[in-house]
Amino acid sequence: MGPIYYQKSKHMVIDKMHARATGRRVLLTRQPTIGRSQDGGLRIGEMERDCLIAYGASMVIFERLMLSSDPFEVQVCRQCGLLGYYNYKLKMPFCSTCKNGENISTVKLPYACKLLFQELQSMNVVPRLKLTEK
């Protein structure tokens, strides 16, 4: 017989558990908030992304980084490669650079990517998208 000393861990599984279907988003980027305390989204880091690429699960990456995060439809001019807009009065897409709406395609990309393009254009750096037919 002898005394036994032990310590109890205060970390319980119920306190660490975190899952989310939908919830709050950041206003600027339209992405899920950060952290468990703010009911934030579950993030995929670079190492997890690399593992999914090595495994060949590209649709999981697409779903996590695009569909679950911040999908957005933009109009892209096939002639000049710049972002256009949808004119709700005329009910047709329009390119303000080419001054017409004939060569416009609708593309889905993350809202953060669209925001990056607009911020670069405000600094006189013009990113152009080259669209190809599948």
Separation of termini? 77 Å
Rg measurement, Å: 23 Å
Q: Count every beta strand, where a strand is a DSSP E run of 2 or more residues.
A: 4
Query: What's the total helix number?
Result: 4
- Order of the strands making up the biggest sheet: 1-4
Helical/strand content category: alpha+beta
Question: Can you give the helix content as a percent range?
Answer: 25-40%
Major beta sheet, specifics? 2 strands, antiparallel
**In the residues, how many domains can be counted?**
2
* % residues in beta strands: 5-15%
Shape: elongated
Account of the protein in words:
With 134 residues, the protein is of the alpha+beta class. The chain folds into two domains: 1-69, no CATH class; 70-134, DCoH-like (Alpha-Beta Complex), CATH 3.90.1800.10. It has four helices and four strands. It has helices spanning 13-16, 46-55, 58-67, 111-122; strands at residues 71-77, 85-87, 92-94, 104-110. The chain has a two-stranded antiparallel sheet with strand order 1-4. Strands 2-3 form a two-stranded antiparallel sheet. The longest helix has 12 residues, at 111-122. The N and C termini lie far apart (77 Å). The mean pLDDT is 87.
